[in-house]
Amino acid sequence: MERRTFLRATVVGGASAAFGGSLWHGAAYAAPAQPGTGPYGALGSPDANGIRLPAGFSSRVIARSGQTVSGTSYAWHSAPDGGACYADGTGWIYVSNSEINPSGGASAVKFSSAGAITGAYRILSGTRQNCAGGRTPWNTWLSCEEVDRGFVYETDPWGVNAAVQRPAMGRFKHEAAAADPVRKVIYLTEDETNGRFYRFVPTTWGDLSSGTLQVLVAGTATSGSYTWTTIPDPDGSPTTTRTQVSGSKSFNGGEGCHYADDKVWFTTKGDNRVWQLNLTSSTYELAYDDSLVTSGTAPLTGVDNVTGSSSGDLYVAEDGGNMEICLITPDDVVAPFLRIDGQSSSEITGPAFSPDGTRLYFSSQRGTTGSSSGGITYEVTGPFRA
Asked: What's the whole-number average pLDDT of the chain?
């Protein structure tokens, strides 16, 4: 371990010794990621879509809010937000939420094996401010309402089955969801300045109609151990879910959430942090904190939606900042992957990889206009590392 990493670990982990390796695989508290050269090198000049990409990558526009998706008769929704991809025979589907209140919902775009758009349609209607969400192992999309006592809706990416409200998953200002097939739970973030981090334990895995909502209980430090405690009243009225359990840990504006390899990462926008829960050891730590960058300017600000690639890289989208998607490598390096020029009044949302890992989808929620009616959804193709 580099001296820098050891010193940083002592700052974050307090008295805990840092003998782990990478951020992903270290058994002890590792250092938050530091700026460095990313695996794809420097960003180039803006392309025709105003996107700066590393060499070998290219972008295209998939959809624009209020305009029909190319080759279809479907008009894309406003304020595109959280998204995910699903295998569909030889092709795939990308779903995207609409962060509009009222009448948010979600839509989908279908692609052929060659990446051609073959369809677009609505999969959820009549809901409020659908921000992020999460993909389930049984190929549904959990669309989350970011409003007081909001619901989670389980939707069908193919648009065949009607969406179903899932009140057992709690009523609060939902943001993102991430499924853990090992422990058979769904992790949930809450977009409040004193939000909590939850998990939902279904009575039967694959059926979200009933189960137990629990909240993470831990100390006030930025690393340590945690436990889970059941929320007495998931309905959140008259007492909000985040204030029902004494000792539950407060997080400043929960946003994106991603599960992989017995770990779950989530972001908090109020303090520009990426948190990591090590699920096998029941410990938590910081994967990134812009206030703990030791040299230069912090490359990642306005942390928001997050996804991961097969290589173990995390891709974190910025809400504001300088409109970048930054990646955090398993070697604790944080670096820009792309930047959108000329859209400073927007935010980047919905990053998700195609099933084969060669295409990254995301949106600029307000595009060049700064209005929710100006959203743009993109695809980036290139030599993503496996």
From this structure: 92
Sequential DSSP letters for 152-201: EEEE-TTS-SPPEE-GGG--B-EEEEEEETTTTEEEEEE-STTB-EEEEE
- Tokens representing 38? 């990313």
Contact call for residues 28 and 44 (beta carbons, < 8 A)? no
pLDDT, tens only, 237-285: 999 999 999 999 999 999 999 999 999 999 999 999 999 999 999 999 9
pLDDT band at 193 (very low <50, low <70, confident <90, very high): very high
Cβ distance 165 to 153 under 8 Å? Answer: yes
Q: How many CB atoms lie within 10 A of CB 381?
A: 16
pTM value is: 0.92
Structure tokens at 122: 């609505």
Round to whole Å and give the CA distance between 278 and 27: 9
What type of residue is 142? L
Q: Indicate the SS3 state at residue 287.
A: strand
CATH class of segment(s) 36-181+256-381: mainly beta
Exposed e or buried b for every residue in 181-206, given b needs 16+ CB within 10 A? eebebbbbbbbbeebbbbbbebeebe
Give me the pLDDT at residue 320, please. 86
How far is 7 from 5, CA to CA, in rounded Å? 5
Check: CB of residue 310 under 8 Å from CB of residue 181.
no
Closest by CA position to 351, among listed 321, 318, 302:
318
Cα–Cα distance for residue pair 70/48, rounded to 1 Å: 18
pLDDT of residue 368 exceeding 70, the answer is: yes
